[in-house]
């Protein structure tokens, strides 16, 4: 059933929230549970559309999947070498990184090309060339990527770009190979560290995660384990940005503050006051945001592309003009035409957006067409005067758990309604 959010904006948000578990850490951890034939228990697994899509793939591969409240148990006693077809990969573009774990366990894998994406092309060349460097033979049979890993060997992989998904794929690919797999120019995102810790909790030997060279020493067998993935730094950043936009004060609990440093430093530039504690960050904002001269997205620890739309929504009401440069995805400003329906003045050319802040946004009917762009529309609606309707809630549900309850808990007027 399709749903929409109805938001009455213009209210300051005040209160405390507990951040959810990270989607982008949990997805590869679920994929990595194929590496063992024993049960794996994932604690505090978030209930999200993307997680459901990954679990559909796991079931398709023969895994048993069971939720007990927020705890998820996955057991992949045997792996069925079914083709993962496009109805499954189409729902989750990042499904490509499951190739590494299937190959490591079975030495064969078949997956439909994940295709394009609303925020850009999302090519998979780095995944493919990385696996080829481990002697996997790869052929494309009418859109199905067929991988033969019968001669797969540990080796050195040089990534041309520090891709998060390719690094994760290769870490999983190397986990059960004889010898040491070295990933050079690896992504350094905290989610990579989390995956390494998970593989090690299963008895694996991964070192260097969080740095540019990750070493994976293969082991004969991995065992089951219980693991709690890291907190969601992008959700934390989204709630902080919402309050920077609406005014008010928020304490986000259960986070690892250094994970959000790239975002909090930028939010400070908008005039918000931020105090960092052991596992929480408090943000207070009392006036119209200040503009940011130039904000560029980049790989961790720089400002993340997954927070770019939400910050743009904050800057839409700034007392001056800001520039955002998107360096990771070529088509990530689609949501700006929706913000414009509320009165935002944003000009986009290629990967650069110029935002002329306006004093007020006004409620409007808005269409979310991707996850983080959808979050930006919610932020815009929360600080707009009057009522907004946000359609395309299914995109937002891919990554935000209990969004409307969380926002209502800090004073927002937001309702989910069936269409
Ligand atoms: C992950 C995150 C996503 C985030 C992104 C960048 C997950 C599930 N998703 O996506 O939310 O926005 O990191 O932080 O963790 N590229 C290639 N060839 C490839 C692979 C990637 O050219 O084979 C390019 C992409 O088009 C993009 C850039 O590299 O321009 C970054 O992509 P990557 O780091 O791979 O992102 P994902 O792992 O897909």
List keywords for this structure.
419 residues, alpha+beta, four-stranded mixed β-sheet, 14 helices, 25% strand, binds uridine-diphosphate-N-acetylglucosamine
Number of strands: 23
Q: Portion of residues in helices?
A: 25-40%
Structural class: alpha+beta
Largest sheet: 4 strands, mixed
Distance between the termini: 7 Å
Biggest sheet: strands side by side, in what order? 21-22-1-23
Bound compounds, each kind once, are: uridine-diphosphate-N-acetylglucosamine
What is the beta-strand fraction? Answer: 25-35%
What general outline do the C-alpha atoms trace? elongated
Mean pLDDT: 96
**Rounded Rg:** 21 Å
- Poorly predicted ranges: none
Total helices: the number is 14
How do the helices and strands line up, and which of them pair or pack?
Blueprint: E1 3-8, E2 13-18, H1 23-32, E3 40-42, H2 49-60, E4 64-68, E5 71-75, H3 86-89, H4 98-106, E6 108-112, H5 125-133, E7 137-141, E8 144-148, E9 156-158, H6 164-174, E10 180-184, H7 190-201, E11 205-207, E12 213-217, E13 226-227, H8 233-246, E14 248-253, H9 261-269, E15 273-276, E16 280-285, E17 295-296, H10 308-315, E18 321-325, H11 336-340, E19 345-349, E20 352-356, E21 365-367, H12 371-383, E22 387-391, H13 393-396, H14 403-409, E23 413-418
Parallel strand pairs: 2-14, 3-13, 9-10, 17-18, 21-22
Antiparallel strand pairs: 1-22, 1-23, 3-5, 4-5, 6-8, 7-8, 10-12, 11-12, 14-16, 15-16, 18-20, 19-20
The structure holds uridine-diphosphate-N-acetylglucosamine (UD1).
């Amino acid at each position: 059933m399709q749903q929409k959010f109805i938001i009455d904006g213009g209210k300051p948000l005040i209160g405390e929230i507990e951040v959810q578990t990270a989607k982008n850490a949990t997805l590869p951890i679920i994929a990595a549970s194929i590496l063992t034939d024993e049960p794996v228990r994932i604690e505090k697994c978030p209930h999200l559309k993307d997680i459901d899509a990954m679990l559909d793939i796991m079931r398709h591969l023969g895994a048993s999947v069971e939720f007990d409240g927020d705890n998820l148990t996955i057991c992949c006693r045997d792996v069925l070498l079914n083709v993962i077809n496009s109805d499954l990969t189409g729902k989750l573009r990042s499904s490509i990184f499951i190739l590494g774990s299937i190959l490591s366990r079975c030495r064969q894998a078949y997956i439909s090309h994940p295709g394009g994406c609303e925020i850009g092309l999302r090519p998979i060349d780095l995944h493919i060339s990385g696996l080829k460097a481990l002697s996997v033979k790869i052929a494309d049979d009418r859109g199905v990527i067929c991988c033969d890993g019968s001669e797969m060997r540990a080796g050195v992989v040089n990534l041309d770009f520090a891709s998060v998904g390719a690094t994760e794929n290769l870490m999983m690919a190397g986990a059960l190979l004889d010898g040491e797999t070295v990933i050079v120019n690896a992504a350094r995102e905290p989610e990579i560290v989390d995956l390494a810790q998970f593989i090690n909790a299963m008895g694996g030997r991964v070192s260097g995660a969080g740095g540019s060279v990750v070493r994976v020493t293969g082991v004969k067998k991995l065992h089951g384990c219980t693991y709690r993935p890291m907190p969601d730094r992008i959700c934390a950043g989204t709630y902080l940005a919402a309050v920077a936009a609406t005014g008010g004060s928020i304490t986000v609990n259960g986070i690892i503050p250094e994970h959000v440093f790239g975002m909090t430093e930028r939010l400070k530039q908008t005039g918000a006051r931020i105090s960092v504690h052991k596992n929480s960050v408090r943000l207070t904002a009392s006036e119209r945001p200040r503009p940011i001269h130039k904000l560029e997205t980049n790989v961790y620890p720089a400002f993340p592309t997954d927070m770019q739309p939400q910050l743009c929504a904050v800057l839409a009401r700034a007392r001056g003009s800001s520039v955002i440069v998107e360096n990771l995805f070529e088509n990530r400003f689609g949501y700006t035409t929706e913000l414009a329906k509320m009165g935002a003045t944003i000009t986009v050319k290629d990967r650069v957006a110029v935002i002329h802040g306006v004093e007020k946004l006004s409620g409007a009917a808005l269409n979310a067409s991707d996850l983080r762009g959808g979050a930006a529309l919610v932020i815009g609606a929360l600080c707009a005067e009057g009522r907004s309707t946000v359609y395309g809630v299914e995109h937002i549900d891919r990554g935000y758990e209990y969004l409307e309850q969380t926002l209502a808990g800090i004073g927002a007027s937001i309702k989910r309604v069936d269409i």
